[in-house]
Amino acid sequence: MSNILCYENSLVDVLVDGEPLRVNYIRCSPLARLKTKGTVVLLHDFFRTSYQFRHVLDLFAMGGYITISPDLPGKHVGSQQRTNDAMEVATVAESLNGMLEKIGVRQPVHLVGCGFGASIASIFATRYPKLVASVVRGTGSSKAGMQNMLSLSSSLTKQERLQAFTQYLRLKDRKTFDLSDQGIEEYAEAHVDPTMLLSMQKLCRDLGRDDSTLAPTTEKLAQAPVPNLALETLPEEEPEHVALSVLSFVNRHVSQAKSNVSADPSSSRKQATKESRL
C-alpha cells in the first residue's frame, strides 16, 4: 500500500438489536490536497475478509474517495460475535449501518460488494435507500463453496477445521485468485471459530434459499431506486479493471447528481440546509 495515503485500521463497537457487536474496518483516505468526492464502502465475499480488497484500496483513494472496507461480523480475531444466536443477514446489514453512523459517515455511500458482499449491499440499499448513492455488484461464492462450508462440523477440532478449509482454498481458489500462502492463512483463520462457523452456515442457508451463488437478485435491488452496476471481474483477478470500472460508474453518477441539484434551485437550498446540519 502507498505511504502517501492515510490508512486507519480500527475496531468500532455498535449496537444491533440492543446487543453490542464489534466490527473491524480499514479506512483509506485521499491526500489532504485532493477534494474528496464521496465514500466507497467495499463489502467482501462469503469466504473472504477485507483482505480481498488489498489491491484496490489505494486506487479508489487516489481517485478521490474515502474508502472503507469492513470485516463483516465474525470475520476478524478482534471482532465480537453475538452469543445468543447465529448471525442473520439482517444483522449484518444493521451492523454496517451502525458502523457507518459510529465512524461519522453521514453522506450517501457507494457500495461495492462481491458475492455475499453484493447481497448485503442489495439488502442494505433496500433497507436504507437514503444512505446509498449507488451499488456495484460483483460475482462471488459458488454453490460448491457453500456446500463445503455446510459440511464442516463445529465438533471438529480447530486444527481439523483449519486443515479442511485450507485444503478447499488451495484446491479451488489459489489458481483462480492467485492466493499467496499469507492470503490462504488469512482467510482460513477467519472461518475456523466454532461460533463463527455456525453463523456462516446459517447465512449460507438463508442466502441459498434465494440464490445458490450468493449473488443478489435483480428484484431485491429493484426495491431500492439507486443506480447499480454489475461486474463480472473480481478485485483479486483484475484490480485495475475493477477500480477503473467502479470509479467511472460512481464519477458519472456523482456528476449527474450535481447537475440535477444545480438545475433545481430548491434542491440546492435543501441540500445546503441538510449539509449545514451535519
From TrEMBL:
The terms under GO molecular function for this entry are: monoacylglycerol lipase activity
Q: Which InterPro entries match?
A: AB_hydrolase_1, AB_hydrolase_fold, AB_hydrolase_sf
| Residues annotated as signal peptide | none
Q: Which residues form the AB hydrolase-1 domain?
A: 39-136
Biological process terms in GO annotation: acylglycerol catabolic process
Pfam families in alphabetical order = Abhydrolase_1
Q: Name one GO cellular component term.
A: membrane
Q: Where is the composition biased (Polar residues)?
A: 256-270
User: What domain of life does the UniProt record list for this protein's source?
Assistant: Eukaryota
- The segment annotated Disordered runs over 256-278
Q: What is this protein called?
A: AB hydrolase-1 domain-containing protein
Organism (species)? Knufia fluminis
